[in-house]
Structure formats: structure tokens, C-alpha cells
Design a protein that fits this description.
1318 residues; mainly alpha; 66 helices; 67% helix; repeat; HEAT_MROH2B-like
């Protein structure tokens, strides 16, 4: 019957395979098949499948099984249609399995991978069907090849591991099958044995005790076991998923008992030699330790641990240490054996290590390793073995280790410092120290010990961190180092502050300064064999079966994952520091080392720093109670830094900064007693690293996602914008902390990062808006803002900064004005922007101006030659105030204030010039400064320019023109001519009927009465004596009051004031009869004009000018005509001084004329216009200047239009366009005098002065062009010939414009001649 069923299945398989699975089909051609969920009875004989059931089986769950149907022919005939369908489905699935098993003989790796995956899927649904199919395939195909059988073992392992339950019968069957093949020698060597052994190991997942009993029996025979048995024991020991926690403890206990029973074998020479040979036998790949060898190292250590004879232990360990130390896993195994032996033989193991450390190979390898031959490589990394051994000894000795810590540390430090530096030494050192620190943390009473070697060890760790490459991150070295530092800092003695600072700086730099993650990923990819950075224990060898497709989480082989772990380790270190010393001082100490990174110009460094900072604040908020009685130290700087980073272009940095601000706000509210600090239900304990350095917390993406997202969503502070958070936080800061916030913002204004500058300016403005009134150290802030303003290139940032100054000015004008004066010599554009910001609001502009005037009046004189530095020059602020006031006159913000303060400014500027003359400061820049282009105006020139600007910008340009056209500004250059300059200015105001006379008069009367400065009284009296000629005087100061003032001046301490007062008392205002007397004397002076002496004539003319001035508003009366005629007669005198004096006299006469006198002198004025105009080009500068003034005064008297343009042309224009404009003005306003002007111009063509002759020719040329008809009626042939000759001569003039003009005129003259002939 069985034979019939087998043939039936074979027939069905062949039929299905021929129909559905043709030979050579690809994985994609296999269509979907369905595994029947129904259960059938087993084909096996019950007597074969039933066996003794131990407790291991009784504890299992019962699972339904699915077995292929093997029924009799009669029973098959009796099947119902439904049962027949089930039968066919099971048969079909079995055929599929057979087909896949057969296809395993192929060599296509992709197809094999597909088959293993398919088998695994089938095993999850119906494991018994697949197991039975495999079993049957083995039985029915006994002659299959070794490689085919090898792949079947792989498939069997997959199925057994994938099954949730394994029937006892299958366990026995496949255990027997595995044992039969584990020791076979084939062409596949160890690979075939390992595949069979893996089946046995997979069975241990379901029932490990029978397997363990068999292994124990084989192990304790006295004959050294075959490697396959050791392989199974290694897999069973290393693979965590094979045994649960309880079973693993039982297995480890059984393993310990096996070791105890194996102790006698140590004295068996053959067994010991075979053990040593197995341990030192080269593996297929020396980079990985095979499971059997890994188990042997553990087992060997357990045996030595159980050995009672210390001498035997020493002998074996000495022999083990004398083997090769070339390969890393071999070194780890040796160290593990030593560590396990140390559990019971600590003294013996220590003695062996000390003895081996002093041996020749170790000394030789430490000092002079030379890779001469293969034997040398055996000892190159012996020091690495020693480090690992000390670590294992510490890890295994547990509670007994504390007294040994310093000794172990000293040996570790020695090997670290004197061994050849490479990656192997570094990793061994870190692994060993991690094991030591873990052992210390497990030991009770560690805090009662003082470990003297800890500072030295920390120094080694700093060296290690500094040697880490700054452009790559491929290992856990940084992470492990940080965890070690965390553990060491908990020990005594505590680190001193300097060492701690150095350690902290090193760690932060090592992590934060790494390149961006993208760069790290690229650098990692450049390695041909990237280092394995997967986090795993050094003593846990995980086995991966062939074809195993188990899904596992992504290993930490990416740079991002590794960086996240490293950054978390850094955060853990910072949290450890604050946990050990939970004070505000410690918090400030930690944060102060992070500020440089928060301010980094590199985005990734800022992102990392702010993430760590936020993590620390969050930890502090939820776990640590800081003393509320103790004030935060420099917390304002942190607020400023985080506030600025809220504007970072990097979104992750923005979020972290904003979250950090929220946590900081909570800490501050707790500090003020407004809310509880610790808000979590249970404080979060510090995460402790495992022995291999891996932290137990999870890692996120850049650690930017907060773990308390629900809490943050509920708390309003985390919902606010950055500006709102800043406002909330600053409400809880003390004045000192507010100042720190502002200083942080101000310092950041000088950053080269645009976002930082913009954010700093916004923060500065926000804080000033909220707290500007109560701020301190405003003066220093203003000074610092000026320094930063020079580098501000962002318009919005500059606007916000200046707006902050405006707001500060509301409450801190005195401090800011005094501070700004310090950097207003010279006054650069940035300083002036600050001044304008002070005056942006109109009320403040008046106040600023008033304070500047106050500083201007503070005019101390030098005390001696020691006044050489800024602090010894108290007058500098007065000069700075002068500079500032000069520039303010052109600022829109101060326009109204300057206009209102005109009288005060007028007197202040005049007095300031006298003060500067008293200081006797350099008047002009040095030649070297002029050559270098770095010269600044002298204080005197600045003061004079300020006075000029005051007159011109406030609408008093007539007074300005009066002095400008006379060249009177030069009178202010010396102390001796200063009074004359002030007098001329005051006289100009009187003659121009200045509207500010009354206001200025009121101000100077105050100065005369109250001022203690002689220079102020002197200037006031000079002005007053001139104002006595103004009709407006009596509106402010009655005659009697004026006499009183002048009388008081006679008693003034200053001789000059007394003299001026006396002169004022002689004014015609008080003695009207002097008018007739003076007018009566004028004819006698006219006779003096015709003296032979040039000097006498000049003096007489000057005297007549003075007499006209003394007559004031009474005027010269009828004598004015005589003055005019006599003065005009000397306009063309050959003597320069007389011409100048005559024109000056004529100008004074015109200036003193009233509208009533104009009718009698109009003809004289018109007759003087052309001579004055032509003498503008007089060869004598003094004559030209007096001609300008007289011409200008005539235009004012005649009320010509465009007065200001005319003045500017006379004062500063020199080209042909200026001459044409003046000719146009004259001809436009003097149509009736056309013939007079033309005849005068023609007469000047005979002048011996080339410039005047040229100017006359130009005048006539313009007239010919614009008035040809009139010209033809007034000139004759003689005049025409004269013009021809004149223009011919001008064609040779050096000035190109005049040559061109002459050429053009010569083309017009023929037409003029033709008209004359008609």
C-alpha cells in the first residue's frame, strides 16, 4: 500500500511538474499556489512518531499540523469531493516543494535566493508539509551531490527557524540527520559541516535540552570534541533568539557545570594541546571569529575559572599569551579567557599579565616594532591584547575590582601612551576602559574611593579625541569616549575647573566641527572597505545562516545614524555634568563653552550646538532642581543667542532654538517662583551606556523632533513666534540679564552672517521697545552700536538698529549725547546716522540740540603741556559738539529745531570760534595728511563752516552773501581780526533787515547779564554795538535800557568789553546831533581824494566809509551824490589799492542807502554797473572782490530778480556761462540804460588790462548776438574796426571757449558793417 501511495505521489508530482513547471522555468513563472489550511493525519507510524515527552515538550503550545495524505486506495476511492480537493491541494504543494528541492542543484544564485524565500513563506503557513517534503526528498534521493545536500540543509534550517512549533518526531529525525552529517569530510570542508550544525542549532530553538545533553556527553568523553560540536555550542551561546531569558540562564549554568567537569582535562597533555591548536588555528577569515573558536575561548576561561590550582591556571594563561596576537578577534578571545579566569584567580591573572608585560616581546613591540617578517606581526598588537585583558579582568571581577582600579588604569594609560598609535590600539583602549567604567558603576561604594589615575586617563581621552579625523566619522570612538568621560566624571577626585574646561572644549569641537552629514556620507563611501560601525558587543558573535532572509532593523552603518548616537553621547555628558553639580554657576560654565558654536558661521555647527543646548535645557527643566534663591548667571547671553538663532535660515536650527527658548522660559518662571520647574510625572534618569558604549536611548533624525510633543502642543509658550517668546522671556529677566541680552544682540551686529545681523537688529529693537526706559549702561551700548554700524550692510537691520536708538533716546538722551560726542571728531557718516536717529522724533530733536549747545558751552582751557591724550583734553567734547551741530543743520530731522534755536546757535558759533582761537589749535591739516587723503577739517574751519551753514540753511543767505562777497570770513582766522569779522556780520544783519535781530538781541542780552565767560560777553557786545544802528533794536531794548546795558559794560572785568561799551555809548542813537556834524565834514574829505599819496587817498576813502556807517539810518543825505561821483571816478584808476578802496566805498554807500535816497542816486548806480561788472575780471584780487560786493549791493538796491542765483554766480562761477548770465541780468533789468552800458563797454576795449578788455569784448559780442539792430544804430565804423581787431586778438586767447567765441563773432561783424553802410 505504501509503495502504491509513493508511486501515486511521484506520478502526480511528475504530472504537475510537466504541466505547470516546465524545466528551466524562471522564478517569475511560478504562479501563486495556496496552502490548504485544513489538517490531515500524519502518514507516519504512530510508533515511530511517539516518544517520551519531557517537561520541555509538555510546556509547549499545541499547533495543528498539516501532513501530506498517504491513504489506501480504498480510502481514496471513498473520498468525498471536498476531501478530494484537499488531497489534491496538499499533493500539489508537496509537488511544488519537490520541484524547488530539485532546482537547488542549480548554480544560479538569484534563483536559489528566490527558492529560499519561497520555502520560508511556505514554512510560516504549513511547516510540517515542508519538513515532510524535505525528509522524503532526502530518503528518495540518497545519491544527491554534496553541494545539493548542503543547500537542502540550508533550507531545512530556514524552515525550522521559521516554524513556531516543531513536533518531537521531527526533532528526533532531523537531530539524527544533523548529527550524521556534522562530522563528515566533504569537498565543501567546514561549510558543509556548518550547514548540518546549523540545523541542530535551529532545533535548539524548539527543544534545546536534548541537544545540550548530547553535546555535553560528547564534550566530556575525554577526547577533544569535533569542531562541529563546538560550532553548535558557539551558535547556541551567541544567538540570542535561540533561547529565551530563562532557558539561556539554564544553558549558561549547564555550561558552567560542563566546565567544572572538564577541569581534569587540563592536565591531559593531548587534550590541552588540541585545545590550544583549535584556539590558534587560522580561520577562513581572520577578521571574524568562527563560533566554535569563540565558544572555546569562553569555555577555556570557564575551565580555568573552575580550576583550583593557581599554578595550573598560570601555566595555561602564560601559554595562551605566547600565541599570536596578530588578529583582532584572536586578541579579544585571549582577553576574554583571561577575564573569565580572573573571576576566581584575580591575583594569578594579574601576576601573569604583569609578567607578560615585562617580557621581551612586549617591550620590543612597544619601542621598536619593525615589520621584517611574519613572526614580527605576532607581537605587533600584543599591547592591544593587554588592554583588552585588563578590561575583561575589570569586567569579570565585579565587586572585587574597586581596590584594583588605579593599578589597572595605570597599566592602561601606560600601554596607550607608549604603544604605536593606530586604530587597533585606540579601539582596544576604548573597549577596555568602557568595561572598566561599567564595572566601577556596578560596584557599590565607588564614591568612597579616590582614584588617583582618573585625571591621567581623562588626559589620554582628550588626546584621543584630538587625534580623531575631523573630516570623517566611521567609528564609535567619539561616542565611546564621551560615555567614558561621563562615567569618569562621577568619580573622585573631581576635575579642576581648567581641566574640565579643556575637556569640554575638546569634546564639543570634536563633535560640532565635523563636516555636514552629506559630506560625512560621501567620505564614508570612499572607503574600499568601510569600517564596521555596527553597534554590537565585542564578545557576542552573531551567526547568519546561509540563505536566511530574516528582516532586521537597519544597522548603524550610515554616517547619520552614527552621528546621532555620537551627538546623544555628547548631550549625555553635558547632562552628567549638570547632574553632578546642579547649580546656576555650573550651567553657565557649560553654556559658555557652547556660545562659540552657537555663533559659528557654519550652519551645521550652529544646528548641532543649538540642538545640544536645547537638549540640556530640556533635561534641566524636567529633572534638575536648581536653587531658586540663586540667580541665573549670564542667562541673558543665552537668551540673546537663542533668540538670534530663531531667525536662522536652517529650519531645524529655528525649531530647536524656539524649543530651547520655551524650556528656558519655564526655567525662568520657576526661578521667579511662578510655576513648578519639574513638569514630568517622574524624573527622567540619565541614560547609562552599555559596556560597549552604546546608549540605551533611541536616536532620531538630527535629534530635532522633541520627545514631549504632546506637552509642547498644550503649553502656550511653545506656540508663540520667536519675537513673542523673546518678549515673554525678557519680562522675567533682571536688569543685568536684560543688559546681557542687549550686549549679545549688539555684538552680533558685527557678524558676517546676514541672518544673524538681521535677527540681532530685530531683537535689539524688540527689547528696547519693551524695556528701554529702565535699561542701564546705555552709554556703552551706544558706543558699541556705533562700532557695529560701520559694518552693517543690510538696510532693514540698519533701520531697526537706528530705530532702537530713537527709542532709547526717549529716556536716555543725556547719556547718548555724551557718548556720541566721543566719536564725533571727526564726524563720520555712521556717527551722523546715530545723531539723526536721536532726532527722529521732533520733541527729542529740540532736546538733543539743547544738550549739544550745553556741551558746546563747556569750554575749558588747557592747563598745561600734559594735555596730550583724549582724557587730558576736556575741550574735545566741545569741539565734537561743534562738528555735530554743523552737520545737523543739513539733516531733515533737525530742521525745525535748528530754525527755532537760531539765536542761540548764532551766538554759540561766534563764541566757539573765539574759544578755538584761544586754544591755539592747528588751523590746517598737515601736508602729509593732505597727501594721504586722510586730513580732517581743523576745528576753526569747522566752526566757521557751521556759522556759514547756519546762515545759508535758515534763510539768512543775504547775510552770508554780504560777508562772502567781501571775503570777510578770513577775519575770523585770527584773534586780532575776529572783532572786525563779528562786526561785519552784525552789520550785514542790520543792513539786510534780518528778521532774527530781535531774537538774537534778546539772547545776547542774556549772555551779557549772566555769562561768566569773557569771550561770550565780548561777542555779545560786538553784536550789540552794531545792532544799535537797527530800528528793530528799540522794539526789544528801549534807549534807556540800552544805555544801562552799555553802562554796565563799562564795569566789565574785560578791557575789550569796556572799550566796546564806550564805543556803543558814542552811537548816533544816543547823540543824534553827531549826524549833522559828520555830514558837514564830508566835502572836506572829498578834496582829499585827489591827494598824490596813494596811502592817504585809501585812508580817506576808508574814513568816509566809516563815517557813512556811523551815520546809520540818518544817511549822508545830499552828500551821498558827492560820495558816489567821487568814488566812481576812481573805478578805473591805475592804482590797485585806490580802485579797491573806491569800489568798497561805493558798495558801503549803496548798502547804507534807503529807498528814499535811491531816486537821487539811481543814475550813479546805473553808471557804475558796467564798470563794476567788467572789473570782476580785474587783475587785482582785492579790486575784483570789492567789485563783486558793490555790484551785488547795487542789484539788491535795484531789486533785481534771481538774487540768490546772482549771488552764487558772483561768488563761485568763473566760466563763460557765468559771464553770459551776468550780462543777461544787466541787459534785462536796464533796458533804458542800454546805450550807456554799450558805450561804456566799447570804451573798455581800449583798456590795458587784458582780462577787462576781453570781458568787454564778450559783453559787446553778446549784445551783437542778441541786439543786432540796436547795435547797428549805436556803433560807427571806428567802433567796428576796433571790434574786428579785438576779436582777431581774442582768436589767440589761451582759453578755447574765448577763441571759439571770437571766431563766431567775426562772422557776425561783416553783417554789422553792412548795416552801417546802408
Amino acid at each position: 500500500m505504501c509503495c502504491l501511495l509513493t508511486h501515486h505521489r511521484i506520478y502526480l508530482f511528475n504530472l504537475l511538474a510537466a504541466v505547470f513547471l516546465p524545466h528551466g522555468c524562471t522564478p517569475g513563472s511560478l504562479f501563486h499556489f495556496r496552502i490548504s489550511p485544513h489538517v490531515s493525519t500524519s502518514m507516519k507510524d504512530p510508533s515511530c512518531t511517539k516518544g517520551p515527552q519531557d517537561s520541555d515538550y509538555r510546556d509547549r503550545r499545541s499547533y495543528p499540523t498539516t501532513i501530506l495524505l498517504h491513504k489506501t486506495q480504498s480510502s481514496q476511492a471513498a473520498l468525498m469531493p471536498q476531501e478530494h480537493k484537499m488531497f489534491m491541494e496538499e499533493a500539489y504543494n508537496s509537488a511544488i516543494c519537490f520541484k524547488m528541492f530539485r532546482d537547488m542543484s542549480g548554480s544560479d544564485p538569484f534563483h536559489l535566493k528566490y527558492i529560499f524565500k519561497k520555502i520560508k513563506n511556505m514554512a510560516h503557513v504549513s511547516p510540517n508539509l515542508v519538513l515532510e517534503s524535505i525528509h522524503d526528498y532526502f530518503i528518495e534521493n540518497p545519491e544527491i551531490s554534496t553541494r545539493h545536500k548542503f543547500r537542502l540543509f540550508q533550507a531545512l534550517e530556514i524552515v525550522i527557524r521559521a516554524s513556531d512549533f516543531l513536533d518531537e518526531s521531527w526533532e528526533k529525525i532531523f537531530t539524527k540527520l544533523a548529527l550524521e552529517n556534522m562530522a563528515k569530510s566533504t569537498e565543501l570542508e567546514d561549510a558543509f559541516q556548518d550547514a548540518a550544525s546549523n540545523v541542530l542549532a535551529a532545533i535548539c530553538k524548539h527543544s534545546w535540552r536534548p541537544v545540550a545533553q548530547h553535546l555535553e556527553a560528547e564534550l566530556l568523553t575525554g577526547v577533544f570534541p569535533h569542531r562541529s560540536l563546538l560550532y553548535v555550542m558557539g551558535v547556541l551561546s551567541s544567538e540570542e533568539e535561540l533561547l529565551n531569558k530563562e532557558d539561556r540562564a539554564s544553558w549558561e549554568e549547564q555550561l558552567t557545570q560542563m566546565a567544572v567537569k572538564s577541569v581534569p582535562f587540563l592536565n591531559t597533555d593531548v587534550w590541552s594541546k588540541e585545545l590550544l591548536w583549535a584556539l590558534t588555528k587560522p580561520s577562513r577569515t581572520q577578521q571574524e571569529l568562527p563560533p566554535e573558536k569563540a565558544f572555546l575561548f569562553t569555555y577555556y576561561g570557564l575551565i580555568l575559572q573552575a580550576e583550583g590550582n593557581g599554578a595550573t591556571v598560570k601555566t595555561h594563561l602564560r601559554t595562551l599569551l605566547e600565541t599570536s596576537h596578530q588578529w583582532p578577534k584572536q586578541r579579544e578571545g585571549i582577553a576574554l579567557t583571561l577575564g573569565l579566569a580572573a573571576v576566581q584567580h584575580l591575583d594569578d591573572v594579574w601576576a601573569i599579565l604583569e609578567q607578560f608585560g615585562r617580557s621581551a616581546p612586549i617591550k620590543w613591540s612597544l619601542h621598536s616594532f619593525s615589520q621584517k617578517n611574519l613572526e614580527d606581526l605576532r607581537w605587533k598588537w600584543a599591547s592591544s591584547t593587554m588592554l583588552l585583558a585588563y578590561g575583561q579582568v575589570a569586567a569579570r571581577a565585579r565587586a572585587h575590582i574597586l581596590p584594583w582600579v588605579d593599578n589597572i588604569l595605570s597599566r592602561m594609560i601606560f600601554y596607550f601612551q607608549y604603544s604605536s598609535w593606530d586604530e587597533t590600539l585606540k579601539q582596544s583602549f576604548l573597549t577596555a576602559v568602557l568595561m572598566l567604567t561599567a564595572a566601577i558603576s556596578r560596584g557599590e561604594g565607588a564614591h568612597s574611593y579616590e582614584f588617583s589615575q582618573v585625571p591621567e586617563l581623562l588626559q589620554c581621552l582628550m588626546v584621543l579625541m584630538e587625534k580623531e579625523p575631523q573630516d570623517t566619522l566611521c567609528t564609535q570612538s567619539r561616542q565611546q569616549t564621551l560615555h567614558i568621560i561621563c562615567s569618569l566624571c562621577n568619580l573622585r577626585p573631581p576635575l579642576n575647573l581648567d581641566k574640565k574646561s579643556q575637556l569640554l572644549s575638546t569634546c564639543l569641537r570634536s563633535v560640532f566641527a565635523l563636516p555636514p552629514l552629506e559630506t560625512l556620507e560621501k567620505h564614508t563611501c570612499l572607503f574600499l572597505e568601510p569600517p564596521n560601525i555596527e553597534v554590537r558587543s565585542s564578545w557576542n558573535w552573531t551567526h547568519f545562516g546561509w540563505g536566511d532572509e530574516r528582516e532586521t532593523g537597519p544597522p548603524l552603518t550610515s554616517a547619520q545614524a552614527l552621528f546621532n548616537k555620537t551627538a546623544e553621547a555628547l548631550d549625555h555628558m553635558l547632562q552628567s555634568f549638570i547632574t553632578l553639580n546642579p547649580t546656576h554657576k555650573e550651567l553657565h560654565f557649560l553654556l559658555s563653552h557652547m556660545y562659540i558654536w552657537l555663533a559659528s558661521e557654519k550652519a551645521h555647527e550652529r544646528q548641532r550646538a543649538v540642538s545640544s543646548c536645547t537638549s540640556l535645557l530640556k533635561f534641566l527643566r524636567h529633572n534638575i532642581h536648581l536653587d531658586p534663591k540663586e540667580n541665573f548667571k549670564r542667562i541673558g547671553q543665552l537668551v540673546g543667542m537663542l533668540g538670534i538663532l530663531c531667525g536662522d535660515p536652517d529650519r531645524a536650527t529655528q525649531r530647536s532654538s524656539l524649543e530651547g527658548m520655551g524650556h528656558l522660559y519655564k526655567l525662568l518662571t520657576y526661578q521667579k517662583g511662578e510655576a513648578p520647574q519639574v513638569e514630568s510625572q517622574s524624573p527622567k534618569a540619565l541614560s547609562q551606556p552599555t559596556e560597549d558604549g552604546a546608549p540605551v536611548w533611541g536616536s532620531g533624525d538630527q535629534r530635532a523632533t522633541p520627545s514631549h510633543s504632546q506637552e509642547m502642543e498644550k503649553d502656550h509658550i511653545f506656540q508663540l513666534s520667536s519675537s513673542e517668546v523673546i518678549k515673554e522671556i525678557t519680562q522675567h529677566l533682571t536688569m543685568t540679564e536684560l543688559n546681557n541680552v542687549l550686549w549679545t544682540a549688539i555684538n552680533s551686529l558685527g557678524s558676517s552672517s546676514p541672518f544673524r545681523v538681521q535677527a540681532a537688529a530685530e531683537m535689539l529693537l524688540a527689547v528696547v521697545e519693551e524695556h528701554g526706559v529702565k535699561l542701564q549702561t546705555v552709554a556703552n551700548m551706544g558706543r558699541a552700536i556705533h562700532l557695529r554700524l560701520c559694518s552693517l550692510r543690510i538696510p532693514q537691520a540698519k533701520e531697526n538698529t537706528l530705530r532702537a536708538i530713537t527709542l532709547l533716546a526717549r529716556s536716555h538722551i543725556p547719556e547718548l549725547v555724551a557718548t556720541f560726542l566721543d566719536f564725533s571728531i571727526p564726524l563720520d557718516s555712521h556717527a551722523f546716522e546715530l545723531w539723526k536717529a536721536l532726532g527722529t522724533e521732533q520733541p527729542l530733536s529740540h532736546l538733543v540740540l539743547a544738550m549739544l549747545l550745553t556741551w558746546l558751552h563747556h569750554r575749558p582751557l588747557p592747563t598745561g603741556a600734559s594735555d596730550s591724550g583724549p582724557k587730558e583734553k576736556p575741550y574735545l567734547r566741545s569741539l565734537a559738539a561743534m562738528n555735530t551741530l554743523h552737520e545737523m543743520q543739513f539733516a531733515r530731522e533737525f530742521k525745525d529745531a535748528v530754525q527755532e534755536a537760531y539765536p542761540k546757535l548764532f551766538l554759540a558759533f561766534l563764541t566757539q570760534m573765539h574759544y578755538i582761537l584761544e586754544l591755539n589749535l592747528p588751523k590746517e591739516p598737515q601736508p602729509r595728511q593732505q597727501a594721504q587723503g586722510t586730513a580732517t577739517p581743523s576745528p576753526l574751519s569747522t566752526s566757521l563752516e557751521a556759522l556759514k551753514s547756519l546762515l545759508s540753511t535758515t534763510g539768512h543767505w543775504h547775510d552770508f552773501a554780504h560777508l562772502e562777497l567781501q571775503g570777510a570770513w578770513e577775519l575770523f582766522a585770527t584773534i586780532h581780526t575776529y572783532p572786525k569779522g563779528v562786526g561785519l556780520l552784525a552789520r550785514a544783519m542790520v543792513q539786510n533787515h534780518c528778521k532774527q535781530i530781535k531774537a538774537v538781541l534778546s539772547q545776547l542780552l542774556s549772555s551779557l547779564q549772566k555769562s561768566h565767560q569773557e569771550r561770550e560777553r565780548k561777542a555779545a557786545m560786538l553784536i550789540l554795538t552794531e545792532f544799535l544802528y537797527s530800528p528793530a533794536l528799540l522794539e526789544v531794548l528801549p534807549k534807556q535800557a540800552a544805555l544801562t546795558v552799555l553802562g554796565r559794560g563799562l564795569r566789565d572785568p574785560s578791557p575789550e568789553v569796556r572799550v566796546l561799551s564806550l564805543q556803543g555809548l558814542g552811537n548816533i542813537l544816543f547823540q543824534p546831533e553827531k549826524g549833522n556834524l559828520l555830514r558837514g565834514q564830508l566835502p572836506f574829505f572829498f578834496e582829499g581824494f585827489f591827494q598824490n599819496s596813494e596811502t592817504v587817498i585809501v585812508r580817506i576813502m576808508n574814513t568816509v566809509s566809516d563815517m557813512l556807517h556811523c551815520l546809520g539810518s540818518q544817511g549822508a543825505g545830499a552828500q551821498s551824490l558827492g560820495v558816489a561821483i567821487n568814488a566812481r571816478s576812481f573805478f578805473d584808476d591805475e592804482r590797485d589799492k585806490i580802485r579797491a578802496a573806491a569800489m568798497a566805498l561805493f558798495g558801503d554807500l549803496v548798502a547804507a542807502m534807503t529807498d528814499g535816497e535811491l531816486s537821487s542816486l539811481r543814475t550813479q548806480v546805473h553808471l557804475s554797473m558796467v564798470p563794476l561788472l567788467l572789473h570782476l575780471k580785474d587783475q587785482c584780487p582785492a579790486v575784483a572782490m570789492q567789485a563783486k560786493f558793490a555790484f551785488y549791493r547795487c542789484t539788491v538796491l535795484l531789486r533785481w530778480r534771481l538774487q540768490h542765483t546772482l549771488f552764487c554766480t558772483l561768488a563761485w562761477e568763473r566760466g563763460l556761462s557765468a559771464r553770459h548770465f551776468l550780462w543777461t541780468c544787466l541787459m534785462t533789468h536796464s533796458q533804458e540804460e542800454f546805450s550807456i552800458h554799450l558805450s561804456q563797454a566799447i570804451s573798455y576795449l581800449h583798456s590795458h588790462n587784458h582780462h577787462i578788455k576781453t570781458w568787454a569784448a564778450l559783453f559787446i559780442g553778446y549784445t551783437i548776438c542778441h541786439y543786432p539792430q540796436a547795435m547797428s544804430q549805436m556803433v560807427n565804423n571806428v567802433d567796428t574796426n576796433l571790434l574786428f581787431h579785438t576779436f582777431e586778438d581774442l582768436k589767440k586767447d589761451p582759453e578755447p571757449g574765448i577763441r571759439e567765441f571770437a571766431t563766431r563773432q567775426l562772422t557776425f561783424l561783416p553783417e554789422l558793417s553792412a548795416r552801417l553802410q546802408k
